[in-house]
Write a structure and sequence with these properties.
The chain is of the alpha/beta class. It has one domain: Rossmann fold, CATH 3.40.50. The chain is built from eleven helices and eight strands. The strands form two sheets. A six-stranded parallel sheet has the order 2-1-3-4-7-8. GO terms for molecular function: hydrolase activity. This is Alpha/beta fold hydrolase.
Amino acid sequence: MATFVLVHGSWAGGWNWARLRPFLADSGHHVLTPTLSGLGDRGHLAGPDIGLSTHIEDITRLLDWEDLTDVVLVGHSYGGMVVTGVLGRVPERLARVVYLDAFRPEPGQAAFDVLPELPGLFGEPPAEHPWGWPPVDLALLGIVEPADRDWMARKCTPMPVLTHREPLPAPQKQADVPITYLRGAAVPFFADTADKAEADGATVISWPDAAHYLQVHHAARTAELLLGLEEVAGDGGSG
């Protein structure tokens, strides 16, 4: 039995894995889908002090308090910022890190350094909560089916500004953990990030027909990939 910890992206929460999680759990695996501080069901904690370091601490403490080891740590989108920070804190608890169309920063980089065009996508925080961006138009991220857009729009919550402006801290420990990067190539946000991951030795898979929310549009296919990670790595990561 494997342990999967799935870390969501901007505006989302643990609910964002609702379609993917059953495929892993029904195969007998231990699956945790935490909600990061200030978002989703933890939105009552939102405020100007919630940043990337808060979310790295969220997941690091989860691994510690649940006594988890040999974890497959999965980050989607902004979740890639978080899992990279966790990798630098507790690599001994991880069996693999998987990036699902996600940020993969270097130490000292913030999200807006990795994708500098994104600030225009986010707009200005509203006066009633200047600490957080309202959810973006989901169509810009590949969510085009009305039912999917309605489902996500009902649950998305403002994203704390500091999460995308706070840089990734330097790693506290050296890590030798296998990396897999799955790129949804139909929305080209992370083409350069995927290329760099491959140059750094990661196993990279590109799905030309898949948009950004792989866990929503391609839940079964993504689960199949996660369940067969060793075989994918052995095949050299061809997509």
